Amino acid sequence: MKDGVIAEIGDLAGAAATLTVDAAGLIALPGLVDLHTHLREPGREDAETVETGTQAAARGGYTAVHAMANTSPVADTAGVVEQVWRLGQEHGHCDVQPVGAVTSGLEGRQLAELGAMADSAARVRVFSDDGKCVSDAVLMRRALEYVKAFDGVVAQHAQEPRLTEGAQLNEGEVSGRLGLSGWPAVAEEAIIARDCLLAAHVGSRLHVCHVSTSGSVEIIRWAKSKGWDVTAEVTPHHLLLTDSRAESSPVGPYNPIYKVNPPLRTEEDVRALREALADGTIDCVATDHAPHPVEDKETEWSVAAMGMIGLETALSVVQEAMVETGLLDWAGVADRMSARPARIGRLAGHGHPIEVGAPANITLYDPSPRALVDPSAMASRSRNTPYEGMTLPGRVVATFLRGRPTVLEGKLV
Ligand SMILES: [Zn+2]
Fold first, then answer.
1. Which end of the chain has a smaller Cβ tally under 10 Å, C or N?
2. Strand, coil or helix: what is 132?
3. How far is the CA of 208 from the centre of ligand 1 (A)?
4. φ and ψ at 325, to 5 degrees?
5. Residues 6+ apart with CB under 8 A from 358
6. Confidence bin at 24 (pLDDT 50/70/90)
7. Residue 154 Cα to ligand 1 middle (Å)
């Protein structure tokens, strides 16, 4: 690596090097790209900051993350997205690409300044009210039409609001037994179906956030078969965990560590999501890294905040769910966790194959060790990992951002 790009590949005997990493037995992946990270700054620096969130990202093998817009203030103007983008540049642990809100204040009433955010220094291309659904079909149509001007994409958090009022976990047998109000699959699927039709109608790009049900997979498969410009992501937790965790888990029953939106679903859904990621119906893995302070999670289920952290465990979970099961090889992992998310987000400097002349964004990963997940060892400011008490495979050994190490020997540089 030289001047931020890959200069040479092969036998380096005799090559001049300022830093040598013994990568025997390691897998080299293009730096991972997350389409869906909550960095919480500005506004909730008690949960995460751009600095701690990007440190967690680097530890997880990421060289770029998209920072969701549901901050306080909301990232709905050029000023706020530029502020977040600059913070990412200053800290330098990974690139931070701000996501712009679709509607002002995420209120679902009028479009935010999409054009101004696209033209800003942050060059926003992904727009989302994530955390909330753009449920108004007219606003969604207008947003899809508007972003075409600058090759943008609307990333929808698909949740029909009236069908999910007060919802606590997946509507099914477990919610019935626990007496908690259910979040039905149809509330996700109805919005995805509507938005695929809208995107096709106006000829625009739609991205579906955190797909969680087998029915959603079928709808997206159908939309893609029509040639419509629809892409989708799945989270690591929806690839590995089910709603049964609410009843029994390594950290006890009724533990709100498993409360997340959309909720953990069933075995059948997990199977469909894995197959869809393997066959490309679902384009990529996105973490939906959602840090919350202890007091917002260690409380009664019904009042606990929704969300889980995920940047530092994503690659291990994907190895467990997809590689160990034979569904995806490492080239497939590189595609689903780097190339495709970079393409969806229009991040020109990321997601390139490891070849001479490409930006030197590289993750070195050791797939062999298995270890107990230790929340206290994480770089994130928050501790709400759903994998506490579980053993997961693999370890990120080193991460390079344009040739500069951000992680070496598993530790932040
Ligand atoms: Zn969401």
1. C
2. coil
3. 10
4. -90, -5
5. 5, 6, 30, 352
6. confident
7. 13
pLDDT-derived band at 314, boundaries 50, 70, 90: very high
Using one digit for the tens of pLDDT, what is the confidence trace for 261-281? 999 999 999 999 999 999 999
* CA-wise closest residue to 341 among 233, 182, 242, 240: 233
Paired tokens of 58: 């680097």
Name the residue type at position 257: I
Please check whether residue 241 is in contact with residue 264, taking contact to mean a CB–CB distance below 8 angstroms.
yes
CB 402, CB 359: distance < 8 Å: yes
Q: Which DSSP letter does residue 36 get?
A: E
For residues 211 and 220, is the Cβ–Cβ distance under 8 A? yes
Pairing of strands 411-412, 404-408: antiparallel
Q: Please give the model's pTM, rounded to 2 decimal places.
A: 0.97
Residue 1 CA to ligand 1 center (angstroms) comes to 37
The CB density around residue 324, as the number of other CB atoms within 10 Å, is 13
Encoded amino acid at 115, one letter: G
Ligand 1 center–CA 222 separation, angstroms: 23
Rounded Cα distance, 68 and 402, in Å: 24
Task: Supply the DSSP symbol for 304.
Answer: S
* Percentage of the chain lying above the pLDDT 90 cut: 93
Ligand 1 centroid, distance to 307 Cα (angstroms) = 9
Count of beta carbons in the 10 Å neighbourhood of residue 139: 17
Cβ(172)–Cβ(262) under 8 Å?
A: no
CA 290/CA 280 separation, integer angstroms: 25
Dihedral sign for Cα atoms in the order 268, 274, 278, 282: positive
Distance from CA of residue 295 to its chain's centroid?
24
Cα 195 from Cα 360, distance rounded (Å): 37
Of the CA atoms within 13 Å of residue 196, those in its CB half-sphere come to 24
- Pair type for strands 206-208 and 230-234: parallel
Whole-angstrom distance, CA of residue 3 vs CA of residue 155: 34
Residue 114 is given by DSSP the state: H
Q: How far is the CA of 374 from the centre of ligand 1 (A)?
A: 25
Tell me, what DSSP letter sits at residue 126?
E
